[in-house]
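anyone else get weird line breaks when pasting these?? whatever heres mine. first is seq + C-alpha cells for prot A
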Amino acid sequence: MIVTLSEKAKEYMMNQLVLADKNYVLLEVKGGGCSGFKYDWTYVDDDSKGTVIDNTLVIDAMAEMFLFGCTVDYITELGGNYLVVKNPQATAQCGCGESFAI
C-alpha cells in the first residue's frame, strides 16, 4: 500500500467528508514550503486523480513516489488537532510538519 491511514485519521477524514458533503480527501505534493515540497489537502467528489486508500483518501498519482511508505495520523494535542504525514523518505522537514525535502 502506498500510504497507511491510522484509525484516528480515517475517522477524522470520514467525519470531515460528511461535513463537507464530499466523497474523498485528496492528498497531493506540490513544490513550495520551507523545505521544498509541501502536502496539499483538498476535498474531491471522484477518485480520478489517483489511488484510493480505505475508501476515504485519494493519493494523487503524481505524488505517489513522494508518499510511498507514509503513514497519515490524526494528532490531538493541547495546542490543537491536526493530520500529520509521517514520511520515511523525508530527509528534512520544517518545524510545523507541512513541508519536507527528499
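and prot B, same format (seq, then C-alpha cells)
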Amino acid sequence: DKVVHFEIPADDVARAENFYSKVFGWKLNKVPEMQYTIVHTVEVDDKYMPKEVGVINGGMMKRTNEIKNPVITINVANIDKAMEKIKEHGGKIVKNKFEVGDMGIAAYFQDTEKNILGLWQNLK
C-alpha cells in the first residue's frame, strides 16, 4: 500500500492557504461543501492525478479534536480489511469510513505510537 495524499489541519484555514500558496507556490482549490481545500503541489491530469511520478497532492482543513497534526494517507485495496488489521495489531479507528463524492472512501486511524493517519480506497 502506498502513501497517496497528505492533509494539513489549520486553526485558520485562510491563513494557512495564504502561507502555503505564497511560500511553496501550491495551487489551492476550495471545496466549500466539504469544508476542504484541495492542494496541488504539482500539475495534474484530467483525472486530477499528479502528472509527475513519485509525488502526491493533498488537502487542508480546519483542525479538529481528532485531526490535530498533519496526516499522511495510505491507499488500500479494501478499507474494511485494512481497518480490521489495524485493530488486530493494536491500532484504533478514530473516524469511521465515509465516502468522498464518487471518488473513494476514507477513514482515519491511530497507530500504536498515537499517530493519526488516513486510509483511502478508490471507488473506481
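btw re prot B: The mean pLDDT is 94. The two ends are 17 Å apart (CA to CA).
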